[in-house]
């Protein structure tokens, strides 16, 4: 050992000599009471008491009070009840050691209660340094005292007659603890001594030497702990101290900052309000911090700080709200379709449902197991449209629809050019990758989120381009891309009824991009040929434009002194009822070439879906009908599927918005209006039936606008269409908006 390393422990020992002498004076009082009953019964040689110079009891009690902070109890300490024992008290002598340094040695030296006299502090350190080295001892997990004692003696047989040790403990997992040193008991130590004799704490970034008083006022041992690192050793040689000046500077800077030393508390919300800004969020944190500081110390300075940061938070809030709505108003000028998305967070009562879904089974029991619930919903979503139009629908082929009325109507009504999918270039794919919304879901493949694709867009764009073009050339849709995850979304009614949930499909990112690029080609070719009053899923069209168009048409009729009768149709499970074979035959009639049809045919073939709820998933189910809600292709295919309805009801005021269909007729008399509306309503019902869709005449709505009471005496209360009675009302709900007759 080099002289510098040896010098430091001896200097520390000299500083503690006075405390050791005091402990030695108290030891005679303890020697008669500390012997463990278990050790006394088994030891062949009883522990002999220490023989230092005796001091008056009053002086010993005073020294005890100075060391431990309270007077020792009188009488035999073992006679005191357990519930009256005072808590352990410590007296510390700090040895400076900077945080973050690597320890090279940790020395622990104990006095044995079997010795005839206490060794001096210097002797303890000398014995610790010279006679023993650092040694690892593995202790049994949850072992009792006897097992621990036996394990120690097996590895250190010399403890029976030497009584001093330096040990470094290690757990069964192999992790060693440099500062958790356990003193080894010799014959005179009880097993309980392992738990109470030594405690090392971290006080103000400095490891402390602890004198621990155990069993009331009976001091059973004395410990010296010296910690030394290579960096501390170098500083000691040059400056005479082991403290790190950089650490001292950091401590001083922390003291000068108000509230720096207080423990930070931060509330984390799942979703911020839309107009939250980083500046406002920081102002809120500062306001809370100084409010807490003022609550602890109600000084004038803290009050001024609290008021200052409260005003800053209020000012930032107003600025954030003003800037948010100004920015949104500018965005809505170019994107009016985002109107409802902008206001929905402020007016909607439907929040994100993170709670578990519970469903009623056929037995009437409430099922709470989310895996079982996922299976129930998957079975429901997969078969909800199985019986619509008949059980034979899924077995029909494209050739079976060659004489279908819709196919004939398309062939005679569509005058456009043929269509085929074109190959993509690298720039298209790269642009689609960069425009991915990282907040959107990404299906079953959790290893490939949108953020990943967006970040490596330039690198993977060439490879994805070749992959997509190969799919187009071969007319094959990869099977893994046809897997989707259903997220059940509650509509209305009883939450425990599975029929009140609809499935929203989430697809993987690589498939989303492929569908998006293909949809752009189809839309670019067919959008001009689509029915002009079909307003869903099209650019420059939205729910707002549909309502404005209808209301303005009705106002124009009123200005022409005409009455208006409106019929709003209702369908059940429209998207889930889509027939694959009929859709393909309609696309053929629209001019899709054979290779393009082959790709769409592969898109429909063997599609797999499963339900996912709060991390629980169902088994994969094969889809035989329906277009995926949530994909790019789904809405486009639905629009092309229902476009020929306008061919079946010519010269009508038919409006198509997704699965919401409206018919209205204007005229001078009730007979003229109702006769025309009944005829068109019958044609609509016939189209629903031929296209394997389920209409609900019981939920049809009818409203008559007659401001001048034309033929008021002929106005009926019902409208009869194909033996279905539709009740007329003074108010109907159209696209989520209540339309009331105010005339």
From TrEMBL:
Composition bias type Basic residues, residue spans: 252-268
Any GO molecular function: RNA-directed DNA polymerase activity
Annotated segments matching region Disordered: 68-88, 234-271
Keyword Transmembrane: no
Pfam families reported for this sequence: RVT_1
Alphabetical UniProt keywords: Nucleotidyltransferase, RNA-directed DNA polymerase, Transferase
Superkingdom to which the source organism belongs: Eukaryota
Protein's name according to its UniProt entry: RNA-directed DNA polymerase from mobile element jockey
Species per Swiss-Prot/TrEMBL record: Stylophora pistillata
Lineage of producing organism: Eukaryota, Metazoa, Cnidaria, Anthozoa, Hexacorallia
Gene from which this protein is expressed: pol
């Amino acid at each position: 050992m080099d002289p510098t390393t040896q010098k430091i422990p001896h200097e520390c020992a000299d500083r503690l000599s006075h405390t050791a002498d005091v402990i030695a004076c108290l030891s005679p009082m303890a020697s008669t009471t500390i012997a463990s009953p278990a050790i006394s019964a088994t030891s062949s040689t009883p522990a002999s008491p220490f023989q230092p110079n005796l001091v008056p009891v009053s002086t010993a009690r005073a020294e005890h009070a100075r060391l431990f902070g309270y007077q020792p109890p009188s009488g035999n300490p073992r006679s005191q009840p357990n519930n009256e024992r005072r808590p352990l008290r410590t007296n510390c002598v700090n040895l400076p050691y900077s945080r973050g340094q690597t320890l090279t040695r940790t020395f622990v030296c104990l006095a044995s209660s079997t010795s005839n006299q206490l060794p001096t502090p210097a002797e303890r350190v000398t014995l610790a340094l010279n006679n023993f080295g650092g040694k690892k001892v593995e202790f049994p997990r949850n072992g009792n005292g006897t097992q621990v004692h036996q394990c120690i003696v097996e590895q250190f047989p010399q403890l029976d007659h030497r009584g001093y040790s330096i040990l470094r403990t290690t757990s069964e997992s192999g992790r060693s603890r440099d500062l958790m040193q356990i003193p080894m008991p010799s014959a005179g130590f009880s097993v309980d001594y392992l738990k109470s004799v030594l405690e090392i704490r971290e006080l103000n970034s400095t490891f402390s030497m602890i004198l621990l008083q155990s069993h009331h006022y009976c001091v059973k041992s004395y410990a010296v702990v010296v910690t030394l690192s290579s960096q501390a050793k170098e500083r000691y040689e040059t400056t005479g101290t082991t403290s790190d000046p950089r650490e001292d500077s950091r401590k001083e800077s922390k003291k000068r900052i108000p509230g720096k030393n207080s423990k930070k508390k931060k509330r984390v919300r799942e979703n911020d309000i839309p107009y939250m800004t980083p500046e406002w969020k920081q102002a809120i944190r500062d306001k809370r911090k100084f409010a807490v500081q003022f609550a602890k110390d109600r000084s004038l300075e803290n009050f001024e700080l609290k008021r200052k940061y409260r005003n800053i938070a209020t000012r930032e809030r107003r600025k954030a709200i003003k800037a948010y709505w100004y920015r949104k108003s500018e965005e809505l000028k170019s994107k009016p379709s985002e109107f409802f998305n902008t206001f929905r967070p402020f007016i909607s009562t439907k929040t994100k449902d993170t709670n578990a879904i519970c469903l009623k089974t056929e037995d009437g029991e409430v099922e709470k197991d989310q895996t079982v619930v996922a299976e129930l919903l998957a079975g429901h979503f997969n078969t909800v449209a199985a019986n619509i139009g008949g059980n034979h629908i899924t077995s029909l082929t494209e050739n079976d629809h060659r004489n279908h009325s819709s196919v004939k109507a398309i062939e005679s009504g569509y005058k456009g050019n043929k269509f085929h999918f074109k190959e993509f270039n690298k720039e298209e794919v790269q642009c689609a990758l960069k425009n991915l919304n990282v907040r959107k879901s990404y299906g079953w493949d959790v290893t490939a989120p949108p953020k990943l694709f967006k970040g490596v867009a330039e690198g993977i764009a060439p490879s994805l381009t070749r992959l997509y073009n190969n799919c187009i050339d071969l007319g094959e849709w990869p099977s893994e891309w046809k897997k989707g995850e259903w997220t059940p979304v509650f509509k209305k009614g009883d939450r425990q009824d599975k029929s009140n949930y609809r499935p929203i499909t989430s697809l993987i990112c690589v498939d989303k991009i492929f569908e998006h690029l293909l949809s752009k080609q189809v839309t670019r070719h067919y959008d001009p040929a689509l029915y002009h009053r079909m307003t869903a899923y099209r650019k420059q069209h939205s729910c707002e434009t549909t309502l404005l168009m209808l209301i303005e048409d009705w106002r124009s009729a009123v200005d022409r002194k005409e009455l208006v009768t409106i019929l709003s149709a209702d369908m059940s499970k429209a998207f889930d009822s889509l027939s694959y074979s009929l859709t393909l035959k309609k696309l053929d009639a629209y001019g899709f070439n054979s290779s393009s049809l082959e790709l769409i045919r592969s898109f429909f073939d063997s599609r797999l879906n499963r339900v996912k709820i709060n991390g629980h998933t169902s088994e994969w189910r094969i889809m035989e009908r329906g277009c995926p809600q949530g994909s790019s292709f789904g809405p486009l295919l639905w629009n092309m599927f229902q476009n020929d309805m306008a061919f079946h009801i010519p010269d009508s005021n038919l409006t198509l918005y997704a699965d919401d269909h409206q018919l209205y007729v204007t005229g001078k008399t009730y007979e003229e209006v109702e006769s025309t509306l009944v005829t068109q309503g019958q044609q609509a019902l016939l189209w629903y039936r031929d296209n394997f869709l389920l209409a609900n005449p019981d939920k049809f709505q009818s409203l008559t606008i007659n401001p001048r009471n034309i033929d008021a005496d002929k106005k009926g209360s019902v409208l009869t269409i194909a033996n279905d009675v539709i009740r007329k009302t003074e108010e109907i709900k159209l696209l989520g908006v209540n339309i009331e007759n105010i005339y």
